[in-house]
Structures are given as C-alpha cells and as structure tokens.
Design a protein that fits this description.
The chain is mainly alpha-helical and 59 residues long. It contains two helices and no strands. Keywords: Membrane. InterPro entries: Bact_OuterMem_StrucFunc, OmpA-like, OmpA-like_sf.
C-alpha cells in the first residue's frame, strides 16, 4: 500500500538523521484513518490525508 511505503520512507529518513532504528516505528493508515473524512474529496483534502504524523515520547 502507498501509506505503508510512505511510512517506511519517513522512518528511513528519520534514521538517516541519526535517530536509532530501535527508537522509531512507522505504520501506514491508508484510508482507514483519514485526517479529513470525505466521500467526494477535493485535491486539497486528499493532500491533507497524505501525511506523516509523529508522536514524540519523552524517555
């Protein structure tokens, strides 16, 4: 799925910036968790749904 590839690419980018591989995970959500729920989406709404989100947890 495209969302899985996007998540993997984002994880690889973060790792390339020095974050240890064991400190980051990625998960593609696809159409299951859109930011903007719509049936007749505009291109702008589609663009908002193509995203990477980060949750930063303090150790």
């Amino acid at each position: 799925r495209l969302s899985d590839r996007r998540a993997k690419s984002t994880v690889q980018y973060i790792i390339s910036k020095g974050i240890a591989k064991n400190r980051i995970t990625g998960q593609g959500m696809g159409e299951t968790q859109p930011k903007v729920a719509c049936t007749e989406c505009t291109e702008e709404e589609h663009a908002q749904n193509r995203r990477s989100e980060f949750l930063i947890i303090k150790k």
